[in-house]
Each structure stands twice: as C-alpha cells, then as structure tokens.
Amino acid sequence: MASPSPVLRVRGAVVPIVALAALEAVLRASAVRSDSIARPGEVLHALAAGLADASVLVATGQTLACALAGLLIGAGAGLLLGALLGLSRFAAGLAWAPVESLRHLPPVALLPIAMLVFGQGLRMEIALVGFTCFWPVLLLTQAAVGGVEPRLLDVARTLHMGRMRTILRIVLPASAARVAVALRLATGIALIVAVTTEIAANPLGIGYAMVRSQAELQPASMYAHLLWLALLGWALNAAMARMERHIAARLGTEVTR
Question: Model's pTM, two decimal places?
C-alpha cells in the first residue's frame, strides 16, 4: 500500500478526532456509568498516569523484550533456512511436507505445550513469538531467493564460493528488498503474538495489564493500555517502513508498500 501524503494524513486524522470528541460529549451528557465504557478524556488521563508512574513503561518493556527476542530468533532462523530452500529445489521438496503441516498451527494452540516446557515467563512467550515469526520469514525469503537472477549464482559457482558465502554475499543482497517486507510483516506478528500470549496465559506485559484492569473494573486503564498498544504498533511499523525505504534507496529498487 502506498504511503499517503502528509496532507492526506492530517485529513485522515480529522474523522477519528471528531468521533472521539462526539463520544466524549455524549458520555458527559449522559448520567449512565458503565464498567465497560470510559470517556476518551478518562482514557487519556489513565494513560498519562500510567506513564508518570512508569507502570505502562514497565509493561511495555516486558512485551517488547519478548516480541523482539522472539522476532530475532524466529526471523533469523527463517531467513537462513529460507535462503537454503530457495537455493535448492531438492531441499525445498524434502521440507515441503513439514513446512506445510506446521506453519498452519496457531500459536495459541501451542500454549499448553509451551507452558509445560518453559513454564510461565519470558522464555515461554519468546518461544511462541519465535515459532510464529519463523514461518512468514521462511516462506517469503524462500520465494525471494528463488527469484534471484540465475546469472548471479553462476558467478558464485565460477568463483568457487561456498553455500554460506553465496547466501551472504550474493543471495541476501539481491533479495534484500523482499526480505525487508518479510521482516516488516513478522514485526507486526511478533507484537500480536506477544500480547495474545500475555492475555491468555502469561502474567506480564501490556496484555496482562489489560486483563488485570478489566478484572479490577477499570475500563479507563484497560483502554489506555489498548491505545498505547496501538501507538506502539504504529511506531514499530513506521520504523520498519523506514528500513524498507533505506534498503530500496541503497539497492536502487522500489519496494512495494
């Protein structure tokens, strides 16, 4: 998707701002109080309070630590194995059945196994994030490497370069733009899986903070963490999009976004 111009971004922000202002006015005019609804002003106040006492920042650190560690492990393994499968049709044929069988497993279904193996905590969450991020990076890297210009591989064979040197010196640079798209996709997945794991089974991070706020009947705090999570996801996506543009500029190619 093409990035909108700054003018369109400003115009696009008008609708949600007006909607939130209208919701604030309606809720202020109404005498109804609810354990599931909070005024936008209350949500912003709760977010400011959470940032001031650092509780939101602590939860954010826990979530990001798991998400980024799992992303590093899963994407790194997917990158290397995807490059190998993209270079070898024989290896890709052997890996087809296990890849197609395992990549469809939802991470939530693996929670009982992960809890048995790792227990609750950072390691369990990192393992689930890494498992989930591994597959999209593997498949997109395999496709990207499989589309590398064959003459580049002929040059590598002529120079008697080994398989790993061929991957690092020729294959990955040639497919870097498409690999960057895979990493951007995996970054979003990492954050989603980390928070989902915290909501379902892991007592730490932003996900657990939302569950705790809901259990304590504090909707403003719950929505404040949700708002912060949306801002965090936007910031991570913007950082990865900037990386894509940097790679595209370095390679002289256009990355489809």
Answer: 0.82
